[in-house]
Amino acid sequence: MPKDRSPTRIQKKNRAAILEAALEVFSAHGFRGATVDQIATQAGLSKPNLLYYFPSKDAMFTALLSELLDTWLDPMREINASGDPLEEILAYVQRKLQMSRDYPRESRLFANEIVQGAPRMLDALSTDLRDLLAEKEAVLTGWMAAGKINTTHPKHLMFSIWALTQHYADFDVQVRMLMGPEDPFDAAPEFLETLYRRMLTPTS
């Protein structure tokens, strides 16, 4: 889309519609299985009109991933080094779980990209995510050294939180099939809080 002037309201609306349609198609079919024609149809636009905003499928996918990574990092950024260590970690777990509930398509898109070797996210993962994780690892290590939470491997602690919370989005069909009529998110918050509280509460 031309950048020599501010986008109009219609242009903003169309761009948002395209990215919403792209999210739907990419999360369902993956990058390789998705086509520009599918996205245009989903967005209710002609293919030439869509290509006015995004010149390629890759451009749409990259735009989505850029926004997604920033959204994904926000819950980790909120971990406060000055807060109560256990409560900060438990709150982070709940924020991640809520993201799986609110953004299942985004989670699957992110997971699919990682499974493919993250070709469009490698630079961001090796800078933004790695730097933020290193910052929070130092916070966790400090809390452990002070005896405020049980000592464990800080990176693996974070990996386990990601795995246990994002599973509900990435394997939504399987989870809901096995849970039957029960909403998996009804009991998940209490289960995960109990799990991590028992794991991290210092023993007297």
From TrEMBL:
Task: Output the Pfam families linked to this UniProt entry.
Answer: TetR_C_3 (PF08362), TetR_N (PF00440)
DNA-binding region(s) in UniProt: 35-54
Q: Which InterPro entries match?
A: Homeodomain-like_sf, HTH-type_TetR-like_transc_reg, HTH_TetR, Tet_transcr_reg_TetR-rel_C_sf, Tscrpt_reg_YcdC_C
The alphabetized UniProt keywords are: DNA-binding
Give the domain of life: Bacteria
Where do the HTH tetR-type domain residues begin and end? 12-72
Q: Kindly provide the name given to this protein in its UniProt entry.
A: TetR family transcriptional regulator C-terminal domain-containing protein
- In which organism is this protein found? Pseudophaeobacter arcticus
